[in-house]
Amino acid sequence: MVILALNCGSSSVKYQLFDWERKEVVAKGMVERVIIGDSFIMHEVPGRETYRKDSECPDHKIAIDLIIKTLTDPEQGVLKEIGEISAVGHRVVHGGEMFTRSVLIDEKVLDAVKEVQHLAPLHNPPNIAGIEAAQAVLPDVPHVAIFDTAFHQTMPEHAYLYPLPYEWYENYGVRRYGFHGTSHLYVSKRAAVLLGKKPADCNIITMHIGNGVSHCAIRGGISVDTSMGLTPLEGAVMGTRCGDIDPAIPAFMMQKENLSAKEIDSILNKKSGVLGITGRYTDRRDVIENAANGDKRCKVALDIEAYRLKKYIGTYMAALGRLDAVVFTAGVGEMGWPIRERTLEGLEWLGIKLDKERNKSAMTRKRETLITTDDSPVKVYVIPTDEELVFTEDVVAILNGTYTDHMQFDYSFARADFVRK
What we know:
Helix content is 37%, strand content 19%. By secondary structure, the chain is an alpha/beta fold. Helix 1 (60-71) crosses helix 3 and helix 6 crosses helix 15. The longest helix is centred in the last third of the chain and has 25 residues, at 296-320. It is globular.
């Protein structure tokens, strides 16, 4: 069984091809600059040099068609024919309250996803376009939706409701939903294995830190709170998103700068966060390098981000009570040791004893690493995330009729004998 995982953004399509019998990735890549022009595909196959081809993709259907042609190309491909693909898994950012787990896509499901696209106007429309494009290119195979929001549907009312007019929730679905659900699911299951416990016996804080950033408080293996809200704008400092701010600021700046609602929304999502503070950078590697060279705004950006991360750890420890572990994951979480060090500094009184040398050595996306001392009451791990594996296992289980709630489902990566390839 060969599973194609697709992650469609507004101007890109990421893909991964997974051979279920061999339990390995056979190809992955991305089509970039979809719609906006000068499109190209970057295609990776283990043991080969990365292949790049320029090819205009004015829409997602043509981009997905390019992916299929590349996967079946006699020289660059890994498949003899398109019929070898058994199913397609699609990342869908927002599923609203309707979807608590991955589902087989039919007309009813697609209509439901369209009904909540106003809750994620930057993400759901390209997700929908990708589903429809893939269904057109691969009409004879099952398509499955994997929702970013599904993992967080276990949050209690007091965690997901905002102190706003209740009618806003009833009429428009205004509440906390949370995102990066597959990442939080994966690394929390792996952390339970490393702790030698069952997920149901673990209290864990997971910190997904990339260009987008979200944190999750996990009690007894399920999400009870998360930092992103109605949209992915709320929460921690991000690459270009502001995260938590005084809600009066947008209205204040709209008056001062004569900005429209669309303009202020764009500034908060695309020109704030680390980029807003530094004025130049979103990549934390650039920020860390320039801070070390004396750039004051880069240093302030690091201080702000680490301070906010530290506050979230404290907040979620208070919410969870007993804490077993903290997990750092995603690009910055896995590679940004200076940010981890600043975040964890001074938390010994909370039971977190950082081993600075272990932390500095954890600079790879291929290894799970303990970065606290052996006697630290609370363990801190760096765990590379693998959202595509969650996609693949959900798809296979749905096809086999064995899929169920994530606390009951037997994920391969939740077993003690799992080996990451």
